[in-house]
Amino acid sequence: MSKIPLYQQIINDIKKDIVCGRYTKGDKIATELELSEKYQVSRITSKRALVELEAEGLIYRIRGKGSFVKGIPSKVSTNKKEDLLFISPFSHDTSFGNYAQGVFQALAGTPYRVVMLGHDQLSQYQIAEVVENYAGVLFYPMTQEIDIDWLYHLYLHRVPTVILDKEYEAIGFPSVVADNEQGGYEATKHMLASGLKKIAFVSSMPLLEVSTIQTRYLGYLKALYEESVTEKYLYQNLERLDLDDYLEEVVSQMLAQGVEGIVAENDIVAISLVNQLKERDVQIPEEVSIVGFDNSQASQLITPKLTTVAQDFAEMGALAAKRLIHQIEEASIQATQDVVPICLKVRETTYQ
């Protein structure tokens, strides 16, 4: 069974009908409703297919009347490898972290289009289908353990690929990452400057599984070293407990050890810690300061507002897209790395 996106199947079928002469210039083609019924898809999907065909100059649309064949170009391909596959963490979050915004901006004026795929849908695909249908891949891995097979097979098939947010030194793909070490360093340095000494680093998963967490932790260690602070407090979810259960244990341990500051792996962990501490009537930042990572929207909505390390996701997406286009057009894969600067956003969970 084909795993080509449904909207792309509609596009390919209509292109074939144009090429073989079923449709000629000025002919009206099926409506959004007719296509959705024929292919058993939503109106959103059928509309996207028509919008894509219009963008390619194959049809034109008249409001209230329908879609019509514009003409038959000298060359119409039903399998142009101009689609780029963007594998993001979650299918329901297709604009993940504004990466997509940067990708779309970088692709403006090029023939390339992006197909979003959630990581949770990846098991439905075969590597051969990606090789056949996509010009290249933007890949945001979840963990090294989960994604290394996919990435290595993409490499063996020489599929142009750029890795976002993670590093895989053993696989020769280019990557685009934030300056995670500097982020961990600045977050820790900020709390040290407030006179705090007992500062913990909290991760929701084993440290060695995710390169970004590792490098943030190295920044944390560097800041402690520069200030001659020898006590370090590392908490990692080695037993893979439910996040709330795990953080409840962590908070109990930290309070017993007199921890004064926390560098959290990301904003999700930081916000959960804020909530856990508030439930225990711990004053933030008077008793415990907290810094997150990502500058998520939620970081500005909680009380107190979260101090966090901001990453320029749009810039990372744009750089990744440019790297990918270069690979495709130059037919060359080189293991380069772009490191995008971070910015510490000081808010209410730490001293100003």
Automatic annotation (TrEMBL):
Task: Give the top-rank taxon of the lineage listed in the UniProt record for this protein.
Answer: Bacteria
Q: Which residues are in the HTH gntR-type domain?
A: 4-72
Q: What is this protein called?
A: HTH gntR-type domain-containing protein
Name the UniProt key words of this record, in alphabetical order: DNA-binding, Transcription, Transcription regulation
Instruction: Please give the Gene Ontology molecular function terms for this protein.
Output: DNA-binding transcription factor activity; transcription cis-regulatory region binding
Looking up PANTHER family in the UniProt record yields: HTH-TYPE TRANSCRIPTIONAL REGULATOR GALS (PTHR30146:SF109), LACI-RELATED TRANSCRIPTIONAL REPRESSOR (PTHR30146)
Query: Which residue windows are coiled coil?
Result: none
Q: Which CDD domains match?
A: PBP1_LacI_sugar_binding-like (cd06267), WHTH_GntR (cd07377)
- Is Transcription regulation one of the keywords? yes
Q: Which InterPro entries match?
A: LacI/GalR-like_sensor, Peripla_BP_I, Tscrpt_reg_HTH_GntR, WH-like_DNA-bd_sf, WH_DNA-bd_sf
